[in-house]
Amino acid sequence: MQLLSEEQFESWRLDARVLEKDRYGEKVLLLTDGTMLKLFRRKSWFSKTLFFPPAERFAANAAALRKLDVPCPQVISTYKLLNPYRSVVHYQPLAGETLRSLLKTDPSLDQQHLFAQLASFITSLHDKGVYFRSLHLGNIVLTPDGQLGLIDISDLRCLGKSLNRNMRKRNYRHLLRYDSDFSLAIPAARDLLREHH
């Protein structure tokens, strides 16, 4: 990770659009060139993030997913910002719309087809050893060429072998607990995913 100077950060931030923030500050910035900065705070001074910062984990996961042919963001660089401390990843976002956004905005969406594609995609992730505890419809993107891909990938793990049955079930349980997502979906959508889990 490179050191990100306050001057460089402020120059990026000047005309950036804040996409996500919390009470600790900005979390995701869309820069004027279309790239993004994601900032991670350290939640405690002594934690595993001290040795493997989330920005580096994001970059490592992006590289692992690309080897597995899973569409995901393209990392440009990782940084550390000292005041306040943040680990920062600079990346080219994955083009497309999240499934959550599509369900909210596209009344012509063929949900039956989309959820069948989603079930196949998740099975393929599990077969490739990708374990994503934060999997939800806001983290899955439909790309312009009709593929599904992943974003917000800092807390997934690529295990190098097919997931066992229990891990698959836990992954699906997590996905299905987002009632606000499935309230927008046809009733058969949840059933289709339950069949796979």
Automatic annotation (TrEMBL):
Kindly give the InterPro entries that the UniProt entry links to this protein: Kinase-like_dom_sf
SUPFAM superfamilies recorded for this chain? Answer: Protein kinase-like (PK-like)
Taxonomically, the superkingdom here is: Bacteria
The protein depicted here goes by the name: Toluene tolerance protein
Q: Which organism is it from?
A: Halopseudomonas oceani
Higher taxonomy: Bacteria, Pseudomonadati, Pseudomonadota, Gammaproteobacteria, Pseudomonadales
